[in-house]
Amino acid sequence: MQLSIADAIDLVVRALGRAGMRPHAARIVADHLVDANLCGHEFSSLPRVLAIADELRKKPPPGEIRVVREDRCSAVIDGGDNVAYVASLTAIDKALEICRKNGVAVVGANNTWFSGRLAYYVERAARQGFVAMHTTNTTARVAPYGGIDRVLGTNPFAIAFPSEDDPLVIDIGTSSTTWGDVALARTKGEALPAGVAVDVHGRPTVDPAAALEGAFLPWGGQRGSGLAVAVQLLGILAGSAAVIDDVSNYGLFFLVIDPDILMPASEYKARVSGLRRTIAVNRPMAETSHVRVPGDGSLQRRKQGLAAGVVNLDERVYQRIVELCST
How many other CB atoms are found less than 10 A from the CB of residue 180? Predict the structure, then answer.
């Protein structure tokens, strides 16, 4: 089914408000989820309302988001147990503030949970002319390479680069699937792809419920697992526990760089744009129609969605969100 963008935002704000989220925070989350939908990422869009509302009902009211330490080039933020859709926005904006003054910024945030699409935050920085990297460790749902016990989070990694047009954005998960994908498959009654998860006994499974009880597998074998460990360690640096057993205290790490500290920013943007064009015109393999530049699919889908003015939503997910608005 389809909803107008305005109706989709209103639906999310009402559902999260009923679950106890403050109006300002609910609007921030709604904007993020609708943008994810427009970019074509179903699992990280409106279906996340269900999980966020469920967690809100388990938690006491959150505190304030506070900068607890700041110096010339860095800051540490206490998320006050607010959802990280809100805390991450505070963190990236603090990083931008510091970077404008000093050319580089490192910001960590903790005491927060559920961060959404990391591309959303690094793109925000790149559109203002900065290179930005962002990682977060998450609830332990992923086994390390060769193992079957949950130790790592799905641990995404994102980096964005300014250019003469749209930023070049790379956003990857380090697990073969995400919690959102698996939860959505369970809601829709669909099977998982083969090879992404094991059950509690370490047997391969395509059953979402069994995968949620067992463990997801790392993306890219030992290489993806190694990157997941690196993200976990940066999360610890930001203030999280070594292994996160519940939905709390994720460690958000942000690095923002002004290209001007190394070379003229205009020249750097031109080179980024040049590389994008070079990739795009690379001769495709026989089975592909063109070579895809990382992140450009999401950017194009967003432009098309904004032009159409609508979001697409599974009817079953829509009905469950509507039910939240009345409970």
Answer: 22
DSSP track, 145-207: TT--S--B----EEEEE--SSS-EEEEE-SBSS-HHHHHHHHHHT-PPPTTSEE-TTS-B---
Model pLDDT, residue 179: 84
- Compute the distance between CA of residue 323 and CA of residue 250 in angstroms, rounded to an integer: 29
Please tell me the distance from the alpha carbon of residue 34 to that of residue 9, in angstroms, as a whole number: 7
Q: How far apart are CA 121 and CA 107, in angstroms?
A: 13
Owner of token pair 């704000």: 13
Give the pLDDT band (50/70/90) at residue 172.
very high
Q: What is the pLDDT of residues 201-219, one digit of tens each?
A: 999 999 999 999 999 999 9
**Amino acid residing at 241:** A
Nearest by Cα to 269 from 258, 280, 279:
258
pLDDT tens digits for range 63-80: 999 999 999 999 999 999
Beta strands in the chain (DSSP E): 2-4, 66-70, 74-83, 104-113, 131-136, 157-161, 168-172, 197-198, 215-216, 252-257, 310-312
State how far the Cα of 122 lies from the Cα of 255, in Å rounded to an integer. Answer: 9
Reading the block at residue 256, the tokens are 């923002």
- CA 187-139-68 angle, to 5 degrees, is 130
Q: What is the Cα Rg of the chain in Å?
A: 20
Q: What is d(CA 215, CA 156) in angstroms, rounded to the nearest whole number?
A: 16
Over range 147-163, report the average pLDDT: 97
pTM score, whole prediction: 0.94
Amino acid at 42: E
Where b means 16+ CB within 10 Å and e means fewer, 137-176 reads bbbbbbbbbebeebbbbbbbbbbbbbbeebbbbbbbbbbb
Residue 2 is inside which H or E element, if any?
strand 2-4
Q: Could you tell me if 144 and 151 are in contact, meaning their C-beta atoms sit under 8 angstroms apart? A: yes
Give the DSSP letter of residue 294: T
